[in-house]
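Quick one, T. Sequence first:
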Amino acid sequence: MGITLTETAAKHVQNFIAKRGKGVGLRIGVRTTGCSGMAYKLEFADALGDEDLQFQSNGVTLLVDPKSLPYIDGMELDFQREGLNEGFKFNNPNVKNECGCGESFQV
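Structure tokens:
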């Protein structure tokens, strides 16, 4: 299945990489934390890792470590602005439960 970005999210990532002046893509993963067990982690990648799985979506390279993929496979990443707030929205079909604050999830 893989990971995808909406056009809006892809444009946001491309603009940010251009402003940074470097980067090969966006690294997406999960870590154990929070009240529901797992949380997403995002960072701009300056180099490919040996074990990175690569996905292409709307002109952006997405890098995922093999241990995180089962938890986020099929996910679509969007970028939304609502009033003064803006940020990434994770549309993950694997999520069974989320905490009330929206920072962590269970699969």
